[in-house]
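Translate sequence into structure tokens.
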Amino acid sequence: MGVDLLMQTLLPAMFAGAIGWWRPPAFWWLAGLAVWVTIGWASGWYLLPTKGTQWLPFALWAVALSELLPGLWRRVLSPLLTSGVFLLALWPLLGRYPEALLGLVVFWLWQGWREWRGDTGRVGLGFTAGGGAFAITVAIGGSLLLAQLSGSLAVLAGLLWLSGLTRKVSDRYLTGAYVLLLTLCWQYIPMDWWLVALALVPPLVEQGLRHKGVWWSALAAVVSAVLVGALGLWLVWPQDSLY
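Result follows.
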């Protein structure tokens, strides 16, 4: 069982990331495909999404579509398309849980903050560290599928970071898929909002410290991920034995 979960989580993302490293223009298309394969492999194959989690690959394909356009159009269209995916993913929940739209607000605030600071054109370890640490919390907290998706995004972000060591690569467009995943975790798992928000800490810390240098910001991302990951595990760990 554990081996199957690891294969479903790691293999599609590793193949997509490796090919995307070799052919950068294909990265976002392949990243979405990897998440789609993980979902299909773990919970059933689909063509048209009917659940919130099934919209997650489309957040990456929205980026791929926007990448076909030149600079300014790309920077405008990418968040708009991602916002559309947000609404489609959350639409079944909004009647009962309108607070789910806070995830979309967080996404736009994050995008605005990065726009205000100026995009450095670099990719960091924040999403990798945050997604990896949160995947363990989610697995213990109640959803193996969402944990797998968090792990898959972490692997994709890690391979994007490795690609950024040799070429100019930005991770700003990973924000949409990352925040959408956290919003779905908040709505589908009995977790307090502030516990889910802990997963925002590593990427925000790393991006906030990029002016200190690549390796300092990477170290800050890893340290913060360890700390918030340990806190998250302590808060969700069941009182009774798992066995």
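Note: The CA atoms of residues 6 and 185 lie 20 Å apart.
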